[in-house]
Design brief:
alpha/beta; Rossmann fold; 2 domains; 8-stranded mixed beta sheet; 6-stranded antiparallel beta sheet; 12 helices; elongated; disordered C terminus
Amino acid sequence: MEELLNKIICGDSLELLKEIPNNSVDLIFADPPYNLQLNGELYRPDQSKVDAVNDEWDKFDSFKEYDKFCESWLKECYRVLKDTGSMWVIGSYHNIFRVGYLMQNIGYWLLNDVVWIKTNPMPNFKGTRFNNAHETLIWATKSKEAKYTFHYHSLKCMNDDLQMRSDWYIPICQGNERIKVDGKKAHTTQKPKELLYRIILATSNYGDLVLDPFCGSGTTAAVAKKLGRQFITIDKEKFYVDVANERVNNIKPIAKDLLEYKIEIKKPKVPFGNLIESGYIEIGQKLYSKDKKNEAIVNADASIICNDITGSIHKVSAEIQNKISNNGWNYWFIENGKGMISIDEIRTAYCVQYLPKEISDSIF
């Protein structure tokens, strides 16, 4: 598969997907033809023609033909996707319900439907329907039991410490982001890089392999390269492949250390008693709150006592603050010749000393 890696390949996806080994891809983003079924040309009130999607690659003779096409590429994607991988498909009301039905029949497990709400949608010039201001994405895995990648805490951090919702307000491509050739749109359905940035960042890791079987102007490849992922992207139109290659060749990857999910790293489960048993904390040693207003004594059974309250480092720190719960690791400190040191820092030192190197290295 080496000859396919980090390439934008010109050819038929239904054939080229067969060259990719089973269970080898970490993340798939598919932006297939929508089969829009547009009737006639569309004009603005000033009689200027709307640059709509009327390309030949989006036209199918019937729903049956479209379903057959989608079932073929969806089955190939299912085959090449790892058991731990994620599958994303985007579409409009013209096709997304047909695609979702086929995905469930094939065996995909649907995790979410995400609504991409376009903050600057094209108006409905005829005034005969609602302004179509969104598209739908389906996020799925190969099975209900799949242990897929999802950087929940990083997405929450991106969203000002609020849980990321399934309605994404992102503008359509505009300004310098919209790729043009000879003054015209290079691709009628170019997806915004912000959309792919969120998907790739959320559901893959550094060095993972990302597949896009309908790459168009190359947004997936461009964002994957920037985020330190490998990619395989395919399109049957040579014009699009040329546009995408020129675009991707100008992308400079972000430094690896800036792509680490540090906020996702969990502290190891080390009981306070381990620090006592190993001598990092002495029996009878005093613990202090950071402001030194509260003082506790460490007992042999790893409980502590403060103001006649006895219990764990967490329970005691909560009670003296009149809280239901509290993280004692961040509340208690010891004092030595260098000043105040949190017991959480002592836990870190313990982990580096006693945990296997591969675990301590991944944490610290």
